Amino acid sequence: MTEEIIIAGFGGQGVLSVGKILAYSGIMKDMEVSWMPSYGPEMRGGTANVTVILSDDRISSPILNEFDTAIILNQQSMDKFEPHVKKGGVLLYDSNGITRHPVRTDISVYVVEAAAEAARMASAKTFNMIVLGAFLKLKPIVNLEHVIKGLEKSLPKRHHHTIPMNREAIQRGMEIVKPFEMGVTI
Amino acid sequence: MKEFLLMKGNEAIAEAAIRAGADAYFGYPITPQSEIMEYLMTEKATERTGMVVLQAESELAAINMVYGAAGTGKKVLTSSSSPGISLMQEGISYIAGAELPCVIINVVRAGPGLGTIQPSQADYFQSVKGGGHGDYRLIVLAPSSVQEMADFVPLAFDLAFKYRNPALILSDGVIGQMMEKVELFKPIPRTEQFDQSWVITGKTPDRKANVITSLDLEPLPMEKHNHHLQAKYKKMEDEEVRFEEIMCDDADYIMVAYGSSARICSKALQLARAKGVKVGLLRPITLFPFPKVRIAELAQRVKGMLSVELSAGQMVEDIRLAVNGKIPVEHYGRFGGMVHSPSEVLEAFEKIFIKN
User: CA–CA distance from A54 to each of A30, A138, B175, B290 (Å)?
Assistant: First the structure.
């Protein structure tokens, strides 16, 4: 099993860190992992993306142009990565700030209203964990316990008190993710 | 269960330097390798082992600090990225001439000039043909994973001390910035494990003074010294060649690639095999000494070779020398900071070798 994922959005949305937590969760399940960020001028310009690969086998290229799953968190990333989802693959996005919804019909499209939910939960910091929960509902490559162990590994000790809140956010993401219906205004 | 960490390539190099028992690191920050010194500072290398970690005022200062410390028989390293490594070339030539061991890390970015901070493999010529003046060689190791970034640090030190020669780890922005799982080796204590008979740490009455210099104005002894260096490089070529072969046994065509490009090619290989095209990958691990004997052997039975590099084509020249006209050898690569994708590599391969 190999899952090739791109996570893309604005800098500050926690794109790189959600990728890191996902990679750490893979290690907790004894999988091979790679995490390749965009770096440099692209990041300074406000957009950030990271390619995360989880696999049972040795990982070949950390750089890809086709993905099993694209997690899209802003319009620029939608424009850039929608065409690069493999046929039959998954596109998961948050519709907050999206002006053009996905148009492809040969992939499965899902929506998670993570920004709105994070606002309801009164914690903007849970945003990326809600997104992660939605992804894991669609692609249960690792389970919640792997993620919690991954969080324990990747978060500095002083932030360990946030783990229960993150767990709740992941569970919330799993609940609220839904298929995108073409033609229905969100 | 083994313990794995998730680390950036740059962090893995820094942690490996601490664990390899390095005595000193001298450097100057430059993207995409600044995490190396940052890690050495934040992870308290000095408190952990007593090693010196010093931000020099420039790359010139850093490499000359390396020169001085290496002369005392200490395990010393520096790191930089392309423009910084260019600045160090005078010092590197002196260190090679004076026969001192040290480890130099180049996390390559695109040039020429200040270029861009994005990944590149355009420093191949500089690394393997001698970027400074004179007839010298560096031992050049090309890691293609974060694990190898860690493992090649102690290996580079061993080779550097074995041959009393600088060893260069030639990485790039991809391998430096990506995170993968790493299993770290057990720390090696900071002790003098190597022959210390040549070091300059103060003369005792029972022996003649050791002299470390790259200068000899008399041409005849200088020629003799050069012959000695050449014999040393020949020994490296005989004994230190390292490479990895992936699916070469039944291959009709071979891709040759190192570092990040080798990773991209291993995916291109899978795509080609899925189409029934028998492609193999030869990944040089040492770029000097170059696996030219193995490449010549493979040229006896395959139809063509494709050198895939993030450059306009540099290693391809060494492949052509090894193949010596037996089969076609072509080059493909994006460069200037752009990185080819596996499907771009496959498309180029098919265009060159299959569709014609």
Answer: 10, 15, 17, 33
The mean predicted confidence, pLDDT, of chain B is 96
**What residues of B are in the A interface, CB distance below 8 Å?**
4, 6, 31-32, 116-118, 173-174, 177-181, 260, 263-270, 339, 341-344
Regarding whether B291 and B342 lie in a shared domain, the answer is: yes
Q: What is the mean pLDDT of residues B48-77?
A: 97
**Looking at beta carbons, which residues of chain B come within 8 Å of A39?**
31-32, 117, 173, 177
Shortest Cα–Cα distance, A146 to chain B (Å): 14
3-state helix, strand, coil in chain B (%, to 5): 40, 20, 40
Same domain (yes/no): B163, B111: yes
Asked whether residue B73 is assigned to any structural domain, the reply reads yes
CB proximity A55 to B under 8 Å: no
- Classify residue A91 as left (phi > 0), alpha (psi -120 to 50) or beta: beta
Contact B178 A20 (CB under 8 A): no
ipTM score for this prediction:
0.91
Residue B274, beta-bridge partner list: none
Give the integer Cα–Cα distance in Å for B45 and B27: 14
- pLDDT score recorded for residue A43: 56
Q: What is the pLDDT of residue A12?
A: 84
Q: Which of B244, B249, B250 is nearest to B265 (CA)?
A: B244
With respect to residue A91, please indicate whether it lies within any of the assigned structural domains: yes
